[in-house]
Amino acid sequence: MNTRKINLTLKSAITAALLFSGSSLAMDSRYEDRSGNLVADVPSDQSEWISPSTLIFAYTPVEDPAVYADVWSEFLSHLEKTTGKKVRFFPVQNNAAQIEAMRSGRLHIAGFNTGSTPLAVNCAGFAPFTMMAAEDGSFGYEMEIITHPGSGIEKVEDLKGKNLAFTSQTSNSGFKAPSAILNAEYQLKPERDFTPAFSGAHDNSILGVAHKDYDAAAIANSVLNRMLSREVVKEDQIKTIYKSQTFPTTAYGTAHNLSPELQSKIQKAFFTFDWEGTKLQQEFERNGEAKFVPITYQEHWEVIRTIDTANNVSYTCS
Predict the structure, then answer these.
(1) CA distances (Å), 65 to each of 13, 58, 103, 266, in order?
(2) What's the count of helices (H) and strands (E) in the chain, helices before strands?
(3) Checking CA distances to 265, which of 12, 51, 191, 248 falls within 20 to 30 Å?
(4) Where would I find the Solute-binding protein family 3/N-terminal domain in this sequence (predicted)?
(5) pLDDT at residue 62 in the model
(6) In this structure, are strands 163-166 and 195-198 parallel, antiparallel, or unpaired?
(7) Range of the domain at 129
(8) How far apart are CA 8 and CA 306, in angstroms?
(9) Angle of CA points 188, 233, 179, to nearest 5°
(10) 127 and 261: one domain?
(11) Is there a domain that residue 35 lies in?
(12) Which among 262, 241, 266 has a CA at the least distance from the CA of 253?
């Protein structure tokens, strides 16, 4: 693979891109951040706390939801035992539907993908507290721009005149990071220099490149690695021309208005789950992930908020 590991300083990318004006990263007025950690606090009025008899869990819609209902089944059983609640897996088809489900109170526990986490925090009251990591505590994934052999694309500059697949506008690796990088480092803009397309999901983009429906695509290599491991695509169908710095992966957390006692039990479930021999281990060890580690949105998502500023992203909620 002709992979270029970048040394991009995102703040300098912002300066180069000249995209800062007008971005809005403010939290929706329905939530209150009394602690100053950029995440909605539990409502000060205890009458607004909820403790549903059935908890709804959703995993980020990066691949076939039916596959992941089974992958998460043992963890959800553990979650039921730890909380004393029934737990149901909610298959979401896109990021917008997942955010709206939490905003409307229909979703209580979720894993939001890297790029949609800020929107979920600011518009849906999402309170992230963990993500997956390797046994040594390391975590993250990279954005890769991939193409197929024979596309005529050997380096990023060759994207001129080609079509490039993104996933969705809320995705970090599938849209926001590559948009900032292509503009800042290569002065490549959609429509002017290449034709953008939106596939809806990372697996769709990867399959589209493998089947030569797209000339190239920006994807999360964590998804690519799992698909290669399952032989959904083969290595000789994919060629990487760009690899980014490491980003945080899916954030897991709760709706802000769950009672503090219930939130504590949910957190305990994540941190006491035994991965050994489970379907969760079988699926995510493909990325080297082996446990859940504590995170803070304020610290671990700083780079993602910087990318959003570079892309003039607004978290204004409708």
Answers:
(1) 35, 9, 21, 22
(2) 12, 11
(3) 248
(4) 54-288
(5) 62
(6) parallel
(7) 46-138+248-310
(8) 12
(9) 15
(10) yes
(11) no
(12) 266
Q: What share of the chain is helix, strand, coil (3-state, %, to 5)?
A: 40, 20, 40
Q: Is residue 167 part of a domain?
A: yes
What distance in Å separates the CA atoms of residue 120 and residue 140, rounded to the nearest whole number? Answer: 19
CB 203 within 8 A of CB 232: yes
Distance CA 25, CA 59 (A): 24
Token readout for 306 is 């910087």
pTM for the predicted model, two decimal places: 0.80
Question: Within this chain, do residues 130 and 256 fall inside the same structural domain, yes or no?
Answer: yes
Report which residue type is found at 318: S
Which range (22-31, 64-73, 285-294, 307-316) has the least confidence? 22-31
Ramachandran assignment for 249, one of left (phi > 0), alpha (psi -120 to 50 degrees), beta (any other): beta
Q: Distance (Å, rounded) from C-alpha 299 to C-alpha 250?
A: 15
Q: Which residue carries 């896109």 as its tokens?
A: 94
CATH number for the domain that contains residue 116: 3.40.190.10
Cβ–Cβ under 8 Å, residues 134 and 197 = no
